[in-house]
Amino acid sequence: MVDTLKKTTTYKVLFAEALGSFLLTAVVVGSGILAANLSGGNDAVALLGNTVATGAILWVLVATLAPISGAHFNPAVTLGFFLRREITAPMSIAYIVIQIIGCVLGAYLAHIMFEMPVMQIASTDRSGIAKIISEGAATFTLLFAIFGAIRYAPKAVPAAVALAITAGYWWTASTSFANPAITIARSLTDTFAGVAPANVPGFILGQLTGAVLATGASALLFRD
Protein backbone atom coordinates (compact mmCIF):
# COMPACT_ATOMS: atom_id res chain seq x y z
CA MET A 1 0.00 0.00 0.00
CA VAL A 2 2.80 2.44 0.87
CA ASP A 3 4.57 1.67 -2.40
CA THR A 4 1.35 2.24 -4.31
CA LEU A 5 0.87 5.72 -2.83
CA LYS A 6 4.49 6.67 -3.49
CA LYS A 7 4.14 5.85 -7.17
CA THR A 8 0.74 7.43 -7.74
CA THR A 9 -0.33 11.07 -7.42
CA THR A 10 -2.79 11.86 -4.64
CA TYR A 11 -5.60 13.02 -6.92
CA LYS A 12 -5.40 9.79 -8.90
CA VAL A 13 -5.48 7.68 -5.75
CA LEU A 14 -8.50 9.51 -4.33
CA PHE A 15 -10.32 9.43 -7.66
CA ALA A 16 -9.82 5.66 -7.79
CA GLU A 17 -11.30 5.31 -4.29
CA ALA A 18 -14.22 7.58 -5.17
CA LEU A 19 -14.96 5.78 -8.43
CA GLY A 20 -14.69 2.34 -6.88
CA SER A 21 -16.96 3.28 -3.97
CA PHE A 22 -19.43 4.89 -6.37
CA LEU A 23 -19.68 1.90 -8.71
CA LEU A 24 -19.75 -0.65 -5.90
CA THR A 25 -22.71 1.00 -4.20
CA ALA A 26 -24.53 1.60 -7.48
CA VAL A 27 -24.29 -2.14 -8.16
CA VAL A 28 -25.30 -3.16 -4.62
CA VAL A 29 -28.37 -0.91 -4.61
CA GLY A 30 -29.24 -1.24 -8.29
CA SER A 31 -29.03 -5.03 -8.33
CA GLY A 32 -31.13 -5.10 -5.17
CA ILE A 33 -33.83 -3.06 -6.85
CA LEU A 34 -33.89 -5.20 -9.99
CA ALA A 35 -33.72 -8.43 -8.01
CA ALA A 36 -36.69 -7.38 -5.87
CA ASN A 37 -38.62 -6.38 -9.00
CA LEU A 38 -38.01 -9.69 -10.74
CA SER A 39 -38.19 -12.14 -7.83
CA GLY A 40 -41.95 -12.05 -7.38
CA GLY A 41 -41.65 -11.50 -3.65
CA ASN A 42 -39.19 -14.37 -3.09
CA ASP A 43 -36.54 -12.82 -0.87
CA ALA A 44 -34.14 -15.73 -1.30
CA VAL A 45 -34.12 -15.26 -5.08
CA ALA A 46 -33.71 -11.51 -4.68
CA LEU A 47 -30.80 -11.98 -2.28
CA LEU A 48 -29.15 -14.42 -4.68
CA GLY A 49 -29.31 -11.88 -7.51
CA ASN A 50 -27.97 -9.14 -5.22
CA THR A 51 -25.15 -11.43 -4.08
CA VAL A 52 -23.95 -12.44 -7.53
CA ALA A 53 -23.86 -8.87 -8.80
CA THR A 54 -22.00 -7.62 -5.72
CA GLY A 55 -19.38 -10.36 -5.82
CA ALA A 56 -18.83 -9.85 -9.55
CA ILE A 57 -18.29 -6.09 -9.34
CA LEU A 58 -16.00 -6.45 -6.35
CA TRP A 59 -13.67 -8.71 -8.31
CA VAL A 60 -13.63 -6.25 -11.21
CA LEU A 61 -13.05 -3.15 -9.07
CA VAL A 62 -10.34 -4.67 -6.89
CA ALA A 63 -8.52 -6.16 -9.88
CA THR A 64 -8.51 -2.88 -11.80
CA LEU A 65 -8.08 -0.26 -9.07
CA ALA A 66 -5.90 -1.97 -6.46
CA PRO A 67 -2.70 -1.00 -8.30
CA ILE A 68 -3.74 2.65 -8.00
CA SER A 69 -5.28 3.11 -4.54
CA GLY A 70 -5.21 -0.31 -2.90
CA ALA A 71 -8.94 -0.64 -3.68
CA HIS A 72 -10.24 -0.13 -0.15
CA PHE A 73 -13.70 1.34 -0.94
CA ASN A 74 -14.37 0.77 2.74
CA PRO A 75 -13.42 2.73 5.91
CA ALA A 76 -12.98 -0.54 7.82
CA VAL A 77 -10.35 -1.68 5.32
CA THR A 78 -8.66 1.72 5.50
CA LEU A 79 -8.62 1.44 9.30
CA GLY A 80 -6.93 -1.94 9.02
CA PHE A 81 -4.19 -0.59 6.76
CA PHE A 82 -3.75 2.41 9.07
CA LEU A 83 -3.28 0.12 12.07
CA ARG A 84 -0.66 -1.75 10.04
CA ARG A 85 1.06 1.61 9.41
CA GLU A 86 0.68 1.22 5.66
CA ILE A 87 -1.27 4.44 5.17
CA THR A 88 -0.89 7.78 6.95
CA ALA A 89 -3.54 9.37 9.18
CA PRO A 90 -4.23 12.30 6.78
CA MET A 91 -4.57 9.97 3.80
CA SER A 92 -6.77 7.63 5.84
CA ILE A 93 -9.13 10.50 6.61
CA ALA A 94 -9.18 11.54 2.96
CA TYR A 95 -9.93 7.96 1.92
CA ILE A 96 -12.82 7.66 4.36
CA VAL A 97 -14.40 10.97 3.35
CA ILE A 98 -14.17 10.15 -0.35
CA GLN A 99 -15.48 6.62 0.21
CA ILE A 100 -18.60 7.92 1.97
CA ILE A 101 -19.24 10.52 -0.73
CA GLY A 102 -18.75 7.95 -3.48
CA CYS A 103 -21.07 5.44 -1.83
CA VAL A 104 -23.86 7.97 -1.31
CA LEU A 105 -23.63 9.13 -4.92
CA GLY A 106 -23.68 5.51 -6.07
CA ALA A 107 -26.99 4.95 -4.27
CA TYR A 108 -28.37 8.06 -5.94
CA LEU A 109 -27.31 6.77 -9.36
CA ALA A 110 -29.20 3.52 -8.74
CA HIS A 111 -32.33 5.51 -7.88
CA ILE A 112 -32.01 7.55 -11.06
CA MET A 113 -31.53 4.47 -13.25
CA PHE A 114 -34.70 2.88 -11.89
CA GLU A 115 -36.72 6.10 -12.04
CA MET A 116 -37.10 6.38 -8.29
CA PRO A 117 -36.92 9.47 -6.07
CA VAL A 118 -33.26 10.33 -5.64
CA MET A 119 -33.52 11.37 -2.00
CA GLN A 120 -34.79 8.56 0.22
CA ILE A 121 -34.56 7.34 3.80
CA ALA A 122 -34.50 3.61 4.44
CA SER A 123 -37.26 2.01 6.51
CA THR A 124 -35.96 -1.59 6.64
CA ASP A 125 -35.42 -2.59 10.26
CA ARG A 126 -32.18 -4.51 10.80
CA SER A 127 -31.96 -4.01 14.56
CA GLY A 128 -30.65 -6.38 17.20
CA ILE A 129 -27.41 -7.51 18.76
CA ALA A 130 -27.28 -10.53 16.44
CA LYS A 131 -26.95 -8.30 13.40
CA ILE A 132 -24.29 -6.14 15.07
CA ILE A 133 -22.29 -9.27 15.87
CA SER A 134 -22.88 -10.44 12.29
CA GLU A 135 -21.37 -7.23 10.97
CA GLY A 136 -18.35 -7.71 13.19
CA ALA A 137 -17.95 -11.28 11.93
CA ALA A 138 -18.41 -10.28 8.29
CA THR A 139 -15.88 -7.46 8.52
CA PHE A 140 -13.41 -9.65 10.39
CA THR A 141 -13.66 -12.24 7.62
CA LEU A 142 -13.21 -9.64 4.89
CA LEU A 143 -10.05 -8.11 6.36
CA PHE A 144 -8.68 -11.50 7.35
CA ALA A 145 -9.11 -12.60 3.72
CA ILE A 146 -7.43 -9.44 2.40
CA PHE A 147 -4.39 -9.59 4.66
CA GLY A 148 -3.98 -13.33 4.25
CA ALA A 149 -4.15 -13.10 0.47
CA ILE A 150 -1.71 -10.18 0.41
CA ARG A 151 0.75 -12.29 2.40
CA TYR A 152 0.44 -15.65 0.66
CA ALA A 153 -1.49 -15.21 -2.61
CA PRO A 154 -1.33 -11.59 -3.81
CA LYS A 155 -2.77 -12.39 -7.22
CA ALA A 156 -5.84 -13.82 -5.51
CA VAL A 157 -6.76 -10.64 -3.59
CA PRO A 158 -9.65 -9.69 -5.95
CA ALA A 159 -11.12 -13.17 -5.66
CA ALA A 160 -10.60 -13.25 -1.89
CA VAL A 161 -12.51 -9.98 -1.46
CA ALA A 162 -15.32 -11.00 -3.81
CA LEU A 163 -15.73 -14.44 -2.27
CA ALA A 164 -15.62 -13.20 1.32
CA ILE A 165 -18.49 -10.82 0.64
CA THR A 166 -20.40 -13.35 -1.48
CA ALA A 167 -20.24 -15.87 1.35
CA GLY A 168 -21.08 -13.19 3.89
CA TYR A 169 -24.40 -12.47 2.22
CA TRP A 170 -25.49 -15.98 3.14
CA TRP A 171 -23.84 -16.89 6.43
CA THR A 172 -24.45 -13.71 8.44
CA ALA A 173 -27.75 -12.53 9.87
CA SER A 174 -27.09 -9.02 8.55
CA THR A 175 -26.28 -10.12 4.95
CA SER A 176 -22.75 -8.76 5.33
CA PHE A 177 -22.59 -5.02 4.77
CA ALA A 178 -19.04 -5.10 6.22
CA ASN A 179 -18.49 -1.49 5.17
CA PRO A 180 -19.34 1.69 7.13
CA ALA A 181 -19.50 3.85 3.99
CA ILE A 182 -21.95 1.51 2.27
CA THR A 183 -23.94 1.26 5.50
CA ILE A 184 -24.39 5.03 5.49
CA ALA A 185 -25.36 4.99 1.81
CA ARG A 186 -27.80 2.13 2.33
CA SER A 187 -29.56 4.16 5.01
CA LEU A 188 -30.41 6.59 2.19
CA THR A 189 -32.20 4.06 -0.03
CA ASP A 190 -35.63 2.69 0.84
CA THR A 191 -35.13 -0.39 -1.34
CA PHE A 192 -34.15 -4.04 -0.94
CA ALA A 193 -30.63 -3.02 0.15
CA GLY A 194 -31.76 -0.44 2.71
CA VAL A 195 -31.07 -0.23 6.43
CA ALA A 196 -32.97 2.08 8.77
CA PRO A 197 -30.81 5.01 9.97
CA ALA A 198 -31.40 4.00 13.59
CA ASN A 199 -29.51 0.75 12.92
CA VAL A 200 -26.47 2.43 11.34
CA PRO A 201 -24.47 3.20 14.54
CA GLY A 202 -24.68 -0.41 15.71
CA PHE A 203 -23.64 -1.73 12.31
CA ILE A 204 -20.64 0.60 12.15
CA LEU A 205 -19.60 -0.31 15.70
CA GLY A 206 -19.66 -3.98 14.76
CA GLN A 207 -17.74 -3.33 11.55
CA LEU A 208 -14.97 -1.30 13.18
CA THR A 209 -14.63 -3.86 15.98
CA GLY A 210 -14.31 -6.63 13.43
CA ALA A 211 -11.69 -4.64 11.52
CA VAL A 212 -9.54 -4.12 14.62
CA LEU A 213 -9.76 -7.77 15.64
CA ALA A 214 -8.95 -8.97 12.13
CA THR A 215 -5.92 -6.69 11.93
CA GLY A 216 -4.63 -8.07 15.21
CA ALA A 217 -5.21 -11.69 14.21
CA SER A 218 -3.56 -11.08 10.84
CA ALA A 219 -0.52 -9.56 12.51
CA LEU A 220 -0.08 -12.74 14.53
CA LEU A 221 -0.54 -15.09 11.59
CA PHE A 222 0.61 -13.32 8.45
CA ARG A 223 3.47 -11.02 9.46
CA ASP A 224 7.01 -12.06 10.28
Description of the molecule:
By secondary structure, the chain is mostly helical. It has one domain (2-222): Glycerol uptake facilitator protein, CATH 1.20.1080.10. 74% of the residues lie in helices and 0% in strands. The chain contains 9 helices and no strands. The protein has helices at residues 2-7, 10-38, 43-69, 75-83, 89-113, 129-152, 157-171, 180-186, 200-222. Helix 4 runs parallel beside helix 9 (200-222), helix 5 (89-113) packs parallel to helix 8 and helix 6 runs parallel beside helix 9. It is globular and about 50 Å long. The two termini are 17 Å apart. The model has no long low-confidence stretch (mean pLDDT 96).
> Helix-strand pattern, N to C?
HHHHHHHHH
Q: Give the CATH topology.
A: Glycerol uptake facilitator protein
Query: What is the terminal-to-terminal distance?
Result: 17 Å
Count the E strands: 0
Strand-pairing-aware structural class: mainly alpha
Total discrete domains = 1
Radius of gyration (Å): 16 Å
Based on Cα principal axes, name the global outline: globular
Q: What kind of assembly state do the chains in view correspond to?
A: single chain
Quickly count the helices. Answer: 9
CATH class: Mainly Alpha
